[in-house]
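FAQ: What does the model actually see?

It sees only this:
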Amino acid sequence: MERFKFFIITLGCQMNKNDSERLAALLLSLGMEEAKTEKEADLVIINSCSVRESAESRVGGLVNSLTRLRLQRPRLIIGVTGCLPGRDKQGLLRRKMPQANLFFSSSEMGRLPGMLAEFFPGLKTNTFSFSDYLKIQPRYDSEYRAFVTIQTGCSQFCTYCVVPQARGLTKQRPLIDILTEIRDLDNRGYKEIVLLGQIVNQYQAPDPENFSVYNPFQQDDFARLLWEVNQLKSIERVHWTAPHPRYLTDETIVALTLPKQVNYLHLPVQAGNNEVLRRMNRGYTREEYLQLVLKIKQTRPGLALGTDIIVGFSGETEQQFEDTVSLYQQCDFDIAYLAKYSPRPGTAAARAWADDVSWDEKKRRWRLLQDLMEKTTYQKNQQYVGQIKTVLVDKYQNGQNLGQSEEQKLVSFVSDQSLVGKMVRVRIKEAAEWILRGTVV
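And it is asked to produce this:
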């Protein structure tokens, strides 16, 4: 029987990467093989991101590129999944991509075997039916770090964000399914678990009876989950992304001190001005965010802190932007992911307000914050010189090993390929903005 080959192109966030791991597992279970490049594949699926206009434009460009490839491979089947189809309720985006044979949301992944039967005769399509795609066991891309989704969708409705349209309202994964997956990873010797959710710290277990009776946390199910994962033997690091400040409870802040918690927290703020935060529907004030950061740093001194910021949101004045700059300075972030606001069709912000900050002004504000971040990050990284950091090694290239420290800082050191996937103690000798260099202890 002919063995058809597939190739997956993943765009966007870690949750998309985890969805692609499930998609790969599903296709492998149908008897397909994974191709090394799209040029060798019979089926190419783009797992799309819709967070910004540029991300959607990239999907269109990839579809056009694959259409040209189809001239050489006439049997090539093109699929688009992920957030872009998820939010295309009226079919407008689908009509812009007539070259795509398949167009389905992540939640419809379980229907894929039936869709493929038309194109690939002989696949084992009759034995698979997943009404909940999270029931599909992922084919993990790493043998030492695993992403584990604990919830999908979002019910916060930030006015600039398409996630509720793309992924639906919040759906909590059963605790027993999460713990079963993580315990299996622990038995297989995985070193790091990254818990994923759109608002990951808003997790509420549908089946709380599966928490241990010895769990010291009693109010916050997310803190209780962190404690459960910390009890496993092989897992050495627990990381999670991305929390929402509004739902960061005292119990979860205490859980930052659990022994396997990485020494890093990513806490999106988006803006530092109360009026902008109100129009974004973030649900907290500048003062509340600053108080939260103070409590975090008092609970776990030395914790590295990251954030997300949008510049040039509708109506943002120069003074309101300056409030964001001053908040950045007060919080003393280690890193920030900076975005220039682009209105997304279907969001409340796009309906209610004009995109009235010029692109040149957005670029200026972005550059000012970027320069501040680079200066701050360089200064903060100097504290690590002379320290010994535990590094989970991700790759080996050109005689160098690269990996992440407990603070999620990139660390480089000279060694050999045998250390990939291992925890290695490294003494830091030099610190730049985006990399720490050292030697193995």
